Amino acid sequence: MSSLIFIIGVELSKMSIKVKSMVFSTLLAAVLLFGLWKLLDTKKTDIRKATPEVEISAQNLLSVLNDGNLAWKDSLNTERIIEVTGHVKETNFINGRITVLLKGSNDSPPYIICDMVSHQRKVVSQLKPNDSVKIKGIFKGYLKDAVFLDCVVTFSQAND
To answer: What are phi and psi of 66, to 5 degrees?
Structure first.
C-alpha cells in the first residue's frame, strides 16, 4: 500500500512539474503577446499635422513652471502637444541631435530645450540668436529647464 502511495506521489509530482511548466509557458506567451501588441499599437504622432493643445509664450511657460501659476499649470501636463512662441537663445547639432534653446524675457536660465525632429535640420541651421520662433512639440517635463521632444518650427522671423 505504501509503495502505491509512493508511486502516486511520484506521478503527481511529475504531473505537477508539467502543469507548472504549462502554466508558466502560457503566462510567458501571454506577456510576450501583450508586449508585442503594445509595441505595434504605438502610433507616432505627426507633430507637423497635430493641433497644439496649448499655445503659450516662452516667458509665460517658464513663469508657470517656476512660480506655479495654477491657472496654467493644469493644462501643462506631460505628453501634451504645446506650441511655444519665443526667442532663440542658441541652436546646436551635437551628437546627431538637433536642439533649439528658447529663452524667456532675460538671457539667463531656465531655458526651454526643444529636441527637433531630423527633417528640421535645414530650418534650424538658418536660425540665429534672438530670432522669433514658434516651436511645436511634446512637453516631457521640467526640472531646471522645460524639455520638449519631436519639435518642429511652425514660424520663424529673423530679428537683427
So the answer is: -80, -45
Angle at 64 between CA 91 and CA 130, to 5 degrees: 25
Classify each residue of 111-123 as buried b or exposed e, where b means 16 or more C-beta atoms within 10 Å of its C-beta: bbbbbbeeebeeb
The dihedral over CA atoms of 16, 33, 38, 120, expressed in degrees to the nearest 10, equals: 130
Q: Which three cell numbers stand for residue 32?
A: 510576450
> 33: which 3 cell numbers?
503577446
Q: What is the DSSP letter of 42?
A: P
The reported pLDDT for the residue numbered 63 is 86
d(CA 8, CA 116): 67
Residues of the chain falling short of pLDDT 50: 4, 8, 12
> What is the per-residue pLDDT for 12?
47
Tell me the backbone φ, ψ of residue 113, rounded to 5 degrees. -95, 120
Predicted structure pTM score? 0.70
Sign of the alpha-carbon dihedral angle for 59, 62, 68, 71: positive
Q: How deeply is 79 buried, as exposed, middle or buried, from its count of CB atoms within 10 A (0-12, 13-18, 19+)?
A: exposed
